[in-house]
Amino acid sequence: MQTTQINVREEPTLFHVNNLNKLLAQKTNQYLSSQGIDIRVEQLPVLLSIPEFGMTQQEIADEVGRDKSSVLRTITSLEKDGLVVVEPNKEDKRKNCVSLTILGKSLVENIRDKMVNLDKIIFANMRAVDRDRFIQFLKNIGDNLQNVHII
C-alpha cells in the first residue's frame, strides 16, 4: 500500500488557516476552563472590547466586526452571567450602553493575564524571532485581504 504525500504548497492556505483557527479556539476553551474561567473563546472579542466607560451595542459590533444580532446574543449571555450591564444610553434613549460589572472587570483582567500565559505555551517551542515573524505575516495577510477586491 503506497501512501501519497501531499505537498503543503498544493493545499489552499484557507485550509491551514481554518484548521489553525479551530485548534486555537478548542485549546483556548480548554485552557480557560482549566483555569476556572467559564467563557467561550467566541465571547472574548465582545467582552474584551468593552472599555471602562462602556459603549453601545452597535459600537461593539463595529469594533469586533460582527453583526449586531450576533453581538446582542453574546451580550445577553454575558449579562445573564453578571459580567455586563445594559442600560439606556444617556444621550440617545434609543440606544443601549453596555458596561462591565465589577465581576466583568475582574474577569477581563484575569483573562488578559491568562492570554499572556497561553501565548507563552503556544510559542514555547519557537524562537522569539520566529514568533515575531509569524505575527507580522498574519498582520500582512490581514492588510492584504483588506485591499483585495475579489468581485
Spell out the key features of this protein.
single chain; about 150 residues; mainly alpha; Arc Repressor Mutant, subunit A; 3-stranded antiparallel β-sheet; globular
Describe it for me?
With 151 residues, this protein is mainly alpha-helical. It contains six helices and three strands. The chain has a single domain (26-147), classed as Orthogonal Bundle (Arc Repressor Mutant, subunit A). 60% of the residues lie in helices and 8% in strands. The longest helix is centred in the N-terminal third of the chain and has 22 residues, at 13-34. The protein has a three-stranded antiparallel sheet with strand order 1-3-2. The radius of gyration is 19 Å and the shape is globular. Helix 3 packs across helix 4 (68-80).
